[in-house]
Design goal:
Number of helices of chain A: 3
Shape of chain A: elongated
CATH topology of the largest domain in chain B: Rossmann fold
Helix content of chain B: 40-55%
Shape of chain B: globular
Radius of gyration of chain B: 35 Å
Structural class of chain B: alpha+beta
Strand order of the largest sheet of chain B: 19-31-30-29-20-27-28
Largest interface: A-B, 31 and 36 residues
Distance between the termini of chain B: 59 Å
Largest sheet of chain B: 7 strands, mixed
Order of helices and strands of chain A: HHH
Number of helices of chain B: 28
CATH superfamily of the largest domain in chain B: HAD superfamily/HAD-like
CATH architecture of the largest domain in chain B: 3-Layer(aba) Sandwich
Distance between the termini of chain A: 69 Å
Oligomer: heterodimer
Strand content of chain A: under 5%
Helix content of chain A: over 70%
Chain lengths: 71, 799
């Protein structure tokens, strides 16, 4: 077996692991694990309406940020 | 039987007749109906699907006008402005029953114009809201929360709390990276070691080395950043700390391993790099977890002082900021309120609780012309007084300043591991450099000399040393928690183990603080219902003691026709034509009742009906269980036991004799207690103070360790370092035992890691260390330390 096979497999598996790690770090930074109850309930309340609401809320926030001129 | 039906909003069950019918829906009250319609209009009625039958509290409560939330004083205290110029507040939401409630509140707030973010934590009901103040006001936000059937009130999210959370999160992130990389390096290392024994081609080895190097890089520079920072500050302060050893060891090993990978000859040590960082980081994290912020305590003291008082201006009562009150202002205090300024009463009279300042639990009666002191609480007095000092010069402000300086200057005993690691690090660094020079001067290549030098640092793995203290204190903390002893900071276990003097408060600490009847002398048979009715009317400790003593199941409740409490004498009342008197000798004499003189050291309570003495009770404050054992046990350990009390000499002596305490200081003010502790400090003693009341807090803050009874006042519990949840003296003795055990365990653990190093370092210096030995050595020393700690834990939990 050529050594490049080992190199490739090592590279691929470390890359996949790293992707998972970054997803975890991102979630940790965003406070998804701060409140374990809410974290578990999020799956229960997941529907189209809430997704729309979340997008609208995000848009509203951006607009307000643009419009807002702190004195 | 009428039909029962559930309310469509709160889901509580009522008879059909009493319900409000509205278009096919039924409501128990207007409040529920209002909320239901509001939710329908806003398109939030899917709340009811989510809540699926959870019973809610009907929103019947009427709230005060919310406009005071927009007051500048309020914004000043609770509202922060963030970097974007938006306003932020932390609220506690009342009435959250289920996750649907959280959903509803967040949705309702998000729908409001101007609200940028509303985030509610279901676990602790705390909400964090960000809004644009030019679009919407805080009062409108709170009105909205109230309109949908909840209530909100602000709390001061202290900076310290936020800071502690941020630090913990930072450690989580760094540890996740370190653990992930180390675990992956380990399975690559398995291939390396297998190859070391069975043969491996150089190109495969290089591939494995590169993979390990890629994984070790973030561990060293991201997770290990903490150590580089620590090493930098250590060098700046000219201290050789453990961080320097870890940072130099890991960095040198890392550079050497890269060099080996490039020249394709020899063994790389990337696994050692990541293992050192990961293990020591975990040890550090354990320490961070069990650390209390001194600043946290300071915050708490301010929280107990209201920021506004009611004063009279132009004949009207207005509220004013505490700091704006000037000398000569008339301040209004009603019953139950705290007096926040010093002054002289101009109108009204009543009793005050001065236990905060004097430690005396008996209420003090004051009337026009007498002075009131800040820091006391009005029990039943509705008074007006003229301020004679502004807040900055008041007794209360003085006390707070004293307390703040006491907390800031709290003496600390340096932890043994810190002292040790300084020597250890220096010795190892010197040995490593010596080894390198020695090998190089003796004819060896630079490569070999460098590798042997490095192996000394790697083998002198500071992992075990870094883990020794945190693991042992963690065992101590959990042993304490099982027995209702709360250590707020791990380092206190070590300090407490070296205690020389134990200072005890009397009332509430050594004794129950509740007098009990020990002797009853009834002259004639009398209706005990009368005495019960008389005693029930008062909150004085003696009447409570009497009430508890004579209590029986079937007492009839009499209504007092007249009732009068005479300060420091007793109670006078008439019930159904009987004239009742209950109180001390003074009261009886004042009403012309002859009593025989008594030389009892206990409190006496006389009861007379229609001018005739019918009974005499002797009351005594009972000593808590285990007091004797505590004093004996501590004396055996060579600890001095001292009692300080605000009570008089006779009572103090009496109690002290009973439990065997020799040193007693009676009639101590809070300042005197604190001064006594300060004197002990100056003599070089380590002092543990045990107390429960507000009058003890200065002394508690001054002592090396302040131990507080769980039932003590809130401020005392906040200021104390150790809290005894069961209020028992048995657990106080346990706390001493646990701290001694833990300290012994720390010493054992440090001993193990030092002995371990004493054996392996000479081997490393002689050049006998192969990579496998280095890796095993690292784990074994750490395992020994953890295993030893588990052994102690197991031994205790069997008891």
């Amino acid at each position: 077996m050529d050594s490049w096979v080992i190199a490739m497999m090592l590279g691929a598996s470390i890359f996949l692991g790293a992707v998972a790690l970054f997803a975890f770090l991102w979630a940790l930074k965003n406070g998804q694990f701060d409140d374990e109850e809410k974290f578990l309930n999020a799956a229960k309340f997941d529907n189209e309406d809430d997704l729309n609401d979340a997008v609208n809320a995000q848009r509203k926030k951006e607009e307000l940020k643009k419009a807002y001129k702190p004195e | 039987m009428s039909e029962k039906i559930v309310c469509d909003h709160c889901h509580l069950e009522f008879s059909k007749e009493v319900m409000i019918e509205d278009d096919g829906h039924y409501f128990c009250c207007n409040g529920c109906q209002g909320v239901f319609h509001l939710l329908s209009e806003e398109g939030l009625d899917s709340f009811y699907d989510k809540a699926s039958g959870v019973k809610l509290a009907p929103p019947t409560q009427q709230y005060e006008d919310s406009s005071n939330f927009d007051a500048a004083a309020f914004y000043d205290k609770f509202v922060k402005i963030n970097n974007d110029g938006f306003y932020e507040v932390s609220l506690i939401i009342e009435g959250i029953h289920c996750s649907a409630c959280v959903w509803l509140n967040e949705k309702a707030l998000h729908k409001m114009d101007g609200v940028i973010e509303a985030n509610i934590n279901f676990t602790n009901n705390k909400a964090h809201i960000i809004w644009a103040d030019n679009v919407v006001k805080l009062s409108q936000i709170i009105d909205m929360i109230r309109a949908i059937g909840y209530n909100a009130y602000p709390y001061d999210a202290s900076l310290q709390e936020a800071h502690a959370n941020r630090e913990r999160k930072d450690y989580y992130l760094r540890m996740s990276v370190a653990i992930f990389a180390t675990m992956n390096i380990m399975w690559i290392a398995v291939a390396q070691y297998a190859g070391y024994f069975t043969g491996i081609t150089q190109d495969i080895k290089t591939i494995l080395n590169v993979a390990e190097g890629v994984l070790a890089t973030p561990v060293l520079f991201y997770s290990g950043w903490i150590f580089f920072r620590g090493a930098y500050y250590g060098l700046k302060n000219k201290v050789v700390n453990m961080d320097i050893l870890v940072a130099t060891g890991a960095l040198l090993t890392y550079i050497y391993s890269i060099y080996i990978t490039i020249i394709e000859n020899g063994e790389a040590y990337f696994d050692s790099v990541s293992m050192i960082i990961t293990f020591v980081l975990i040890g550090k994290f354990l320490e961070v977890l069990s650390k209390k912020n001194a600043a946290d305590t300071l915050d708490v003291i301010g929280k107990h002082i209201p920021s506004e008082v009611n004063i009279i201006r132009d004949g009207k009562i207005v509220s004013s900021k505490l700091h704006d009150v000037v000398v000569g202002d008339i301040v209004v205090v009603s019953s139950g309120e705290k007096v926040l300024l010093d002054g002289e009463i101009t109108k009204g009279s009543g009793t005050f609780d001065e236990s905060n300042l004097t430690g005396e639990s008996d209420p003090v009666f004051k009337t026009v012309g007498q002075s009131v002191v800040s820091g006391t609480t009005s029990i039943d007095a509705d008074i007006e007084f003229m301020a004679t000092k502004d807040y900055e010069h008041s007794t209360l402000s003085n006390l707070v300043q004293l307390l703040e300086s006491a907390i800031n200057k709290k003496p600390r005993i340096e932890q043994m591991a810190n002292k040790l690691s300084e020597y250890f690090s220096t010795v190892i660094l010197v040995l490593a450099i010596g080894t390198f020079i020695g090998w190089w001067l003796w004819p060896h290549s630079f490569d070999t000399a460098f590798m042997v030098g490095i192996s000394v640092i790697v083998i002198a793995c500071p992992c075990a040393l870094a883990l020794a203290t945190p693991v042992a204190t963690l065992v101590g903390l959990s042993l304490g928690a099982q027995r209702g002893i709360l250590f707020k900071e791990a380092a206190q276990l070590e300090t407490m183990a070296s205690c020389d003097v134990l200072v005890l408060d009397k009332t509430g600490t050594l004794t129950e603080g509740k007098p009990r009847v020990i002797n009853e002398e009834a002259k004639t048979n009398f209706d005990r219902n009368l005495l019960y009715a008389l005693a029930s009317g008062s909150k004085h400790p003696v009447s409570i003691g009497i009430k508890d003593y004579i209590y029986e199941e079937h007492f009839q409740s009499y209504v007092h026709d007249t009732y009068e409490q005479i300060a420091s004498q007793g109670i006078k009342a008439t019930i159904g034509g009987f004239e009742l008197l209950g109180g001390n000798e003074k009261l009886m004499k004042a009403h012309g009742i002859e009593i025989a003189a008594s030389n009892s050291t206990n409190s006496l309570f006389y009861f007379a009906i229609n001018g005739q003495l019918v009974a005499k009770y002797e009351l005594k404050d009972t000593i808590k269980d285990g007091a004797q054992e505590l004093v004996d046990g501590l004396k055996k350990q060579g600890i001095d036991v001292v009692m300080l009390t605000g009570d008089n000499q006779r009572v103090a002596k009496n109690i002290a004799d009973e439990v065997g305490i020799v040193k007693v200081f009676a009639q101590q003010t809070p300042e005197e207690k604190a001064n006594y502790i300060e004197r002990l400090h100056n003599e070089g003693k380590t002092v543990v103070m045990v107390g429960d009341g507000v009058n003890d807090i200065l002394a508690l803050a001054k002592a090396h360790i302040g131990i507080v009874m769980g039932s003590g006042s809130d401020i005392a519990v906040d200021v104390g370092d150790v809290v005894l949840l069961h209020d028992s003296l048995v657990s106080l003795l346990d706390a001493f035992k646990i701290s001694k055990t833990t300290f012994a365990l720390i010493k054992q653990n440090l001993g193990i890691s030092l002995v371990y190093n004493a054996i392996t370092i000479p081997l490393a210096m002689a050049g006998y260390v192969i990579p496998l030995v280095a890796a095993i050595s690292m784990s074994v020393s750490s395992l020994l330390v953890v295993g030893n700690s588990m052994r102690i834990r197991y031994k205790w939990s069997k008891q």
